[in-house]
Write a structure and sequence with these properties.
This protein has about 200 residues and is an alpha/beta fold. It has helices spanning about 15-25, 35-40, 50-60, 65-70, 80-85, 185-195, 195-200; strands spanning about 5-10, 30, 45, 75-80, 90, 105-110, 120-125, 135-140, 145, 150-155, 160-165, 170. The protein has seven helices and twelve strands.
């Protein structure tokens, strides 16, 4: 079985932690900063950070349109926290000039769980992740206000949607890369394994 090459969008955020988690989940993990690097991956993680900054840097690095094209063409993509916001078709309260990649038919509320000093951890049952609940680290985390008919809700916390999947796009409000539990990354690596070059 071919080992998939999974990139981490390395413009801002906890890139190193995702690279470590992906490698632990049996992927070849690479940072992605340029369009030619994006062209070489079977899947892509969009890490946490600040969603407005990520979108502006993606535009600056000439990545915004190539990212949109690859997501639209079915590239497996996984967004955590700010990455979830980047994958939303609509943001409820966008900042001026904020853009997204789209890919998941959902409306997301930024910073929904509160400010930095209101960060918390909680056990989350994630559909498709076997075993015990995932320990979710929520840092200025968004939640999903609503989803379209094609979106599968994978997890909720206190009545709010915190994990979703639509086709090859996966998103979580929380940061599994910060816990040492690589099961969510393993789920995504399997999505990437079935994509294009890795499956050939």
């Amino acid at each position: 079985m071919t080992t998939p090459v999974v990139g981490v969008l390395a413009l801002q955020g906890d890139v190193r932690e995702h690279l470590i988690a992906l490698a632990a989940a049996d992927a070849v993990a690479r940072p992605v900063r340029r369009p030619e690097e994006l062209a070489e991956v079977d899947g892509l993680v969009i890490p946490g950070g600040e969603s407005t900054t990520i979108s502006k840097l993606a535009a600056l690095f000439g990545l915004l349109d190539p990212l949109r094209d690859r997501v639209r063409d079915g590239l497996p993509v996984y967004g955590t926290c700010a990455g979830m916001i980047m994958l939303a078709d609509k943001i409820l309260d966008p900042r001026s000039g904020q853009e997204t990649l789209g890919g998941i038919d959902m409306i997301v509320r930024r910073n929904a769980f509160g400010r930095q000093n209101e960060s918390f951890e909680a056990a989350v049952d994630v559909k498709g992740v076997p075993g015990t609940p995932v320990e979710g680290v929520f840092i200025r985390a968004p939640w999903v206000e609503s989803v379209g008919a094609e979106v599968e809700v994978l997890a909720e916390h206190e009545g709010h949607i915190v994990a979703v999947r639509q086709g090859n796009a996966l998103a979580t409000s929380f940061h599994p890369e910060l816990t040492g539990d690589h099961r969510v990354h393993a789920l995504f690596v399997e999505m990437a394994r079935g994509n294009g070059r890795a499956g050939s």
